[in-house]
Design a protein that fits this description.
Pfam families: Aminotran_5. The protein is of the alpha/beta class. It is built from 15 helices and 17 strands. Strand 1 and strand 2 form a beta hairpin. It binds 4'-deoxy-4'-aminopyridoxal-5'-phosphate.
Length: 416
């Protein structure tokens, strides 16, 4: 999991200094120091992000793009700066390829609705995988139902990897869209998306990548990947909730109809005919989530300045340590043991419901997630109802993992 090079990098991070940037971490929960291990659900926010939100509302709150007054111009500039930062962050060709959305769920719905409803015909096939979040299943089911198309599913192996041989067999000239995640929220598996994209393109399909669990943890280069669409949510990247972006290749976004109608997305409106705005505004109807988009830039800068490689190395150290310690506990079964993972540790404990574990850990100030993690088909695949999931971020420490292990030992002994 951790290469020697990345171990060296991880020691370069001053985690105590980083922790000071996250005020929420410094509190007690149920009488204990908070241990926040629910980062795959949402990460905490550093002061630069919190301050950016406050400064926007205190100093230059105004509606963007249409105003000519000073505040409107300042707000527009800050909003558009995030688009430039996002373009750099994922190495898009142009900022016209970055569409702001509320996050991953909205981005998938946008593409399913606009691209899917326009280009999918009866009998066409859309491929997803067994590893997907419901957000990357349900919007495609809408399309399939409406168009009488077919949904095909890439199975996962026992370790939680996509079965690429099975994927190759699913691909055909009928395949029009392949939509998979870059990393799994339930198991942490990092998927070989470059190969998945290459194989899909060989049969003429477009590829959508759900980057919800990659945004803060993995390098993303959309030109190198050659994906057609890619999306992230700010709130999983140390940024605010309710903001994210969709990357789409310009030539695809151009031929897609608007997703929602309203202000901002139009060029000219008459009762006879409306013409649409240029990219990316064609897909940004109505007043957007200005403050959160503005602050999102500071979250991306935080990651870039801290260093994506150093952060990933630190998180992998934590994952390796937690995996070793937790797997040794009596009755623990790890769920998802792929060799390449983001910092997600999912497990069950014989005879104890994940919900009970979650509650008893919370009583000790430890926040983990329990349940199906919005991946019910994946839970079905393993014949389980859910897991306990601990997911780590840059501000987490080995000492906190020791607290988790101690908490788990107590739960297991108590429940026996
Ligand atoms: N896909 C994956 C892999 C996720 O982890 C999540 C969030 N748990 C989503 C999609 C949905 O993201 P959001 O709620 O930010 O729209």
């Amino acid at each position: 999991m951790t290469s020697p090079a990345s171990s060296t990098l991880s020691t370069a991070l001053d985690v105590e200094k980083i922790r000071k940037e996250f005020p929420i971490l410094h509190q007690t929960v149920n009488g204990r120091d908070l241990v926040y291990f629910d980062n795959a659900a949402t990460s905490q926010k550093p002061l630069v992000v919190i301050n950016a939100l406050a400064e926007y509302y205190k100093g230059y709150n105004a509606n963007i793009h249409r105003g000519i007054h000073t505040l409107a111009e300042k707000a527009t500039k800050a909003f558009e700066q995030t688009r430039l930062t996002a373009k750099e962050y994922i190495n898009a060709r142009s900022e016209q390829e970055i569409v702001f959305t509320r996050g991953v769920t909205e981005s998938i719905n946008l593409v399913a609705s606009s691209y899917g409803r326009t280009f999918i015909k009866e009998g066409d096939e859309i491929i997803v995988s067994e590893l997907e979040h419901h957000s990357n299943i349900v919007p495609w089911q809408f399309v399939v139902e409406e168009k009488n198309a077919v949904l095909k599913v890439i199975p996962v192996t026992d370790r939680g990897e996509l079965d690429l041989d099975a994927y190759r067999k699913l691909l055909s000239s009928k395949t029009k869209i392949v939509s998979v995640n870059h990393a799994s929220n339930s198991l942490g598996t990092v998927n070989p998306i470059k190969e998945i994209i290459r194989l899909a393109h060989a049969v003429g399909a477009v590829v959508f990548i759900d980057g919800a669990q990659a945004g803060a943890h993995l390098d993303i280069d959309v030109q190198d990947l050659d994906c057609d669409f890619y999306t992230v949510s700010a709130h999983k990247m140390y940024g605010p909730t309710g903001a994210g972006f969709l990357y789409g290749k310009k030539e695809l976004l151009e031929k897609m109809p608007p997703y929602q109608g309203g202000g901002e997305m139009i060029k000219e409106v008459t009762f006879k005919k409306t013409t649409y705005n240029d990219l990316p505004h064609k897909f940004e109807a109505g007043t957007p989530n200005i403050a959160d988009v503005v602050a999102f830039r500071y979250a991306m800068d935080f990651i870039t300045e801290t260093g994506r490689a150093a952060m990933a190395a630190h998180e992998h150290d934590l994952l390796q340590y937690a995996t070793e310690r937790v797997s040794r506990l009596k009755g623990v079964n790890l769920v998802g043991t792929a060799p390449e993972k983001v910092s997600v540790l999912s497990f069950t404990v014989d005879g104890i419901h994940p919900f009970d574990i979650g509650q008893m850990l919370d009583a000790r100030g430890i926040a983990v997630r329990t349940g199906h993690h919005c991946t019910q088909p994946l839970m079905d695949r393993y014949g389980i109802e859910g897991t306990v999931r601990a997911s780590f971020a840059v501000y987490n420490t080995k000492k906190e993992i020791d607290q988790l292990v101690e908490g788990l030992e107590r739960v297991i002994n108590f429940m026996k």
